[in-house]
Amino acid sequence: MIPQPYGGRLVNRLVGHGARDGMDDYASLPSIQLTLDESYDAEKIGIGAYSPLEGFSSEAEFESITSGTKLENGLPWSMPVVLAPSGRRNTETVESLRAGDTVLLNDHLGSPLALLHLSGKYALRKDRFAEQVYGTKDTKHPNVEEIHNMGTTALGGSIDLLRRLDSPFLKYELTPEESREQFSRKGWKNVAAYQARNPPHLAHEYIQRITLERDDVDGLFIQPVVGKLKKGDYKPEVIMEAYDAFVSRYYREESVLLGSLSISMRYAGPKAVLFYAIVRRNYGCSHYIVGRDQAGVGSYYDPYAGHRVFDEFDVGVTPIRYNETFYCSDCKGMTSTKVCPHPESSRVNTSQTRIRRILAEGGEIPHEIIRPEVASILARGNVIIE
Ligand SMILES: [Zn+2]
């Protein structure tokens, strides 16, 4: 069965512009200019991707998540969704705000996006945020650096979303309600979610295919993160173009649906895995695929901590856990450390680092590791975030 949204009810705070009698009404409100990340979060709260959250984390919620990995009602939850505006104008506005105020949230381009019903302000405990969620205070960690750059005062409260965000991936940016409808239309009851932040290579494909072969899975929802990624990652438009070319050529429409998820990437290892699994449950997925070192960065996390996190926290999603997968020249096919008996020297390295190096040197990517349709997109160049 398509699972209930997390917490039992799909949040829908999308009220549309009409709810406040058009633009003029906003002019009298204090306003905050959101960053791109915050705009993504406001939108995802509004469409229910973060159900049961109805707004940005209050102080009590922040404390509950960072001290016990749970919401105030006891549901496991690993990442607070924090709004701590920075910049001189925002800071002045924040200082003037009082609990009970309605605040206009403008998106990163300055257009009205949402209304915040301020429940309270609090001093953001940045070290606690970094240590409890990301496991480090090291500002070389991309998300810790972002926390460092946030404002010092956080704003909590529910939001009303005035509109969807503009996106170059609009046809893939389904709401949880829309993905649930599509799953039903396809007759899927058990849907596995595949989280991606790279163009597909054959080790990814292998995991997707063996998942689709399971008799407890009806369909696969591939939903790459296309929000803000970090330097050295592939550009979101490249990831989507590659996935589009790949999915339409190699998968049956009856079995696979391609979406996208515009949120800033949280490189928090196991805590991010838990968060992404909850989000995918809201999109209607019953299963969640976890490979090696998902949502990792550098060497901050044990590559298999993302497997174990589901033993500690039950979020109503069945994890499908895979060891490291690779092409083995002795097996003559894709395999994994769970199956293949051959020495490491027989494995064809499919790491993104290697693929990027081949691309940078103008070489051809071996077809054992990447489909030609994907390889030709990557070979065009200008595919990496500088
Ligand atoms: Zn082998």
Descriptors for this entry?
alpha/beta, Sulfate adenylyltransferase, Rossmann fold, five-stranded mixed sheet, 12 helices, 31% helix, globular, binds zinc ion
Describe this structure in words.
The protein is an alpha/beta fold. The protein has 2 domains: 17-161, Sulfate adenylyltransferase; 176-378, HUPs (Rossmann fold). The protein contains 12 helices and 13 strands. The chain has helices at 36-47, 59-68, 88-96, 126-134, 142-149, 176-185, 202-212, 236-250, 270-282, 305-312, 352-360, 372-378; strands at 31-33, 55-56, 102-106, 112-123, 153-161, 191-196, 219-224, 256-258, 287-290, 318-321, 325-328, 333-336, 347-348. It has a 5-stranded mixed β-sheet. It is globular, with a radius of gyration of 21 Å. The protein starts with 30 loop residues before the first strand and ends in an 8-residue tail after the last helix. The mean pLDDT is 92. The chain binds zinc ion (ZN).
State the assembly state of the protein chains.
Answer: single chain
CATH superfamily membership of the largest domain: HUPs
Biggest beta sheet summary: 5 strands, mixed
The 3D shape can be described as globular
| CATH topology category name of the largest domain | Rossmann fold
- What's the number of domains? 2
Radius of gyration, Cα only, in angstroms?
Answer: 21 Å
* Model regions low in confidence, pLDDT < 50 over at least 5 residues: none
**Distinct ligands, ions and cofactors found in the model:** zinc ion
Counting DSSP H or I runs of 4 or more residues, the number of helices is: 12
**What is the CATH architecture descriptor of the largest domain?**
3-Layer(aba) Sandwich
Q: End-to-end distance, in Å?
A: 43 Å
Kindly estimate the percentage of residues that lie in beta strands according to DSSP: 15-25%
Task: Sketch the topology as an H/E string, one letter per element.
Answer: EHEHHEEHHEHEHEHEHEHEEEEHH
Please give the order of strands in the largest beta sheet: 1-3-4-5-2
Briefly note the structural class of the backbone: alpha/beta
Question: How many extended strands?
Answer: 13
